[in-house]
Structures are given as C-alpha cells and as structure tokens.
C-alpha cells in the first residue's frame, strides 16, 4: 500500500506547471513572513500546492473542506516544517470546525478556501482576526456563490479572488476534472457498467456538461435536467435528452447532481425512482440529495464501502458517499486527475502571490483572476507538452485594435 509521501511523490511528477512555479518561488520568496490559512480537500495534489507555497516562504496552516475528503496518510505526511495540517477523514462536524478554528488560531493574512467555510467562520465566529487578513482565494462554484451573496449584502470584509470563475478552471477542472473523477469514483465503488445505462445529470453547467459528455463517451444514455432555459437548450443542441427532474426520475438508473443547490432529489423524486437506482452528488456540499428524508423514512438501512442502501416497501435506493462529493468522499475516491489539478492549483498559487502583492489596493469583494495569470499558466502547460502556438503580427494587432476598418 502506498504511503502518503509516496502518493505525494507520484502526483508531483505529473504536475510540471506547479513545479516550475515552485522553482521561481524558491528563488524569489514572495511569501516570506506570510501566514496562509487553507481549507481544501487534503490529498496528494493539495499537498503539492501547500509545499509550493511553503517553498516560497509561507507558514501554511491547512485543514479539510469536507469531512470525508481527507486522505489521512497524506495529511500525516504533509505536517512538518512550516506546514501544519489539522485535517482528519470521517471527522464529526464538531471536529471539522475545531480544525477550522486551529487554522484561524494562526492568524492567517491570506486564506485559500474550497467552499468558503474558512471565510464564513472568520466573518461569524472569529471576527477579531479580520483586521489582519489581506485577502483570499476561493476554489469552487459553491464558495463563489456564497461570497457573492456576502458581498452583495456588504458583509465581505476583504478581497477574494474567484479562482473558480477563470477559464483555466472552467475548461479543465470543472469539465474534465469533475467529469472523469466522478465517473471513476462511481465505477470503482459500485462496479456497475456505464454503457447502456440511463444516467441523469442534474445541472448543465461546466461540471454537468463534462460529466454528461464523458458518460456518453462510455455508452450511457444521458438525460439532462435544468432550471436555466439557456443551458437546457445548449444541452439539447449538444445531443442530450432534456426533461424535468420528475420525468427523469422514472427513467434514471444512475443520478448525479451537479447544481450546487439544495433539494434537487427529494421525497417526490424518490417515490418515482425504479428499484436499485443509484444516487450521488458531484456538487460541493451534501445538500442536493435529501438524505434526511431517506434516513427517517426507509424501512431498513445498510451501509458498506461508501454505499448506503435505503430499503422501502417497494424499492431500494442506493446513495454513494452519504450524498457528499462523490469523487473524493467514497473510500476509493482520488479526486480530479493530477494533470487537471496541476492547472487549478497553479491558478491558486499565482493568485495567492497576486493577493500578497496587490491585496492592499483591492476593495472588499469578489475579484476575477487577472487574465495575465490565466494565460501564463496556459503557456507553461503548453510548453511542458511541447506545443507551440502562433503570435499575432503587428498588422493583425493593429487591425484588431482599430475601429475604422470597414468592408
């Protein structure tokens, strides 16, 4: 069995972009004297990010952002030197927030979040630390939604870079990362055949689109449910069946929620599902499937290896990973592919550097990743792949910058 350190070393060899950034950080020490507080999924790729920041001079305090996504052997290997890790797998909610508080006890000046729990705790229970926070970065869609709500109400007290909303995150992490890792975790946990299955994907954002496309490539018959008419129309023109969640509930054999919203699958849908239907979630929080209803209304419940089976008088429904993030929370979940997280964590690393340098000049609120950072990461990845691209000529640049070139 691999140790945590062996997992980290395996991941590192497939993360050339972050490795190159780390080499520059070692030379320049952009985080000297900076304390960085992190709440992320603590597994091998995340360890590379934490070590990259520490190599740049940071004191890093890190915990998990989901009670079931930490890999304990990696967490153990990560602690040491200027990195302090408090994450533990299968922790209670009380333990989860105790670990969040341990990160905040270090009085970080920069936060890195996946889901916004660290920032939420800062603004609700640890406001004494707020004056010392320069800014933060947020990794995922759900966290960005929460942050924008805070900002709209005037309650967000420092600037946060929306790492999730940049093209390098959407195009690769959300589409390819979620698509591949969710299906891999489902197949490894259940051993079911994807080909020929009616798979219902709730939500056709970047994550849902990636999952639907890859499931179809494996031979699935994919059904999309949506509340946004434009995304529903896009799914239709992409060749997927589009229908309401109630209609899809009668047909689906495997359901995957990707909306980030609450109550997508609940009592009414459960009552329509066929015997043996499998339900799971690829959104950040465990709110998309109404687990509470299943827990209180099933005749019998059996639990094994990441599968909870709820048996009613006429059917049994199977839920993976307790309705939590399926690609990380099942026992065999490894999260997004390494090469994908090389890009996403490169965005995190450079955005953190940008916040250290420019945070004092940014107003409280949610800010986009600077385009120059996004493009730099793409160029670094292309170079690592041996790919070359063209540059515009002076004539082309002049043409694109002009407004008076008519027909």
Explain this structure:
- The chain is an alpha/beta fold and 407 residues long.
- The chain folds into two domains: 4-169 and 336-385, Adenosylhomocysteinase-like (Rossmann fold, 3-Layer(aba) Sandwich); 174-329, 3-Layer(aba) Sandwich (Rossmann fold).
- It has 17 helices and 15 strands.
- The protein has helices spanning 4-12, 16-28, 44-55, 72-78, 93-105, 117-124, 141-152, 167-190, 206-217, 229-237, 245-251, 267-270, 291-297, 326-329, 338-358, 371-385, 394-401; strands at 35-39, 59-63, 83-85, 110-113, 135-138, 159-162, 198-202, 221-225, 241-242, 254-257, 278-281, 300-304, 307-311, 316-320, 365-367.
- α1 (4-12) crosses α3 and α1 (4-12) packs across α4.
- It is globular.
Q: What distinguishing features does this structure have?
A:
15 strands, eight-stranded mixed β-sheet, 15% strand, 45% helix, globular, Rossmann fold, seven-stranded parallel β-sheet, 2 domains
Going by CATH, the homologous superfamily of the largest domain would be Adenosylhomocysteinase-like
C-alpha-based Rg, rounded:
22 Å
Task: Describe the global form.
Answer: globular
Discrete helix count: 17
CATH uppermost class of the largest domain:
Alpha Beta
Structural class by secondary-structure content: alpha/beta
Measured distance between first and last alpha carbons: 67 Å
Write down the domain tally.
Answer: 2
**What share of residues is helical?**
40-55%
Beta-strand percentage?
A: 15-25%
Strand order of the largest sheet: 9-8-7-10-11-14-13-12
Looking at the overall shape, the CATH architecture of the largest domain is 3-Layer(aba) Sandwich
User: Could you give a short account of the major beta sheet?
Assistant: 8 strands, mixed
Low-confidence stretches: none
Mean pLDDT value: 96
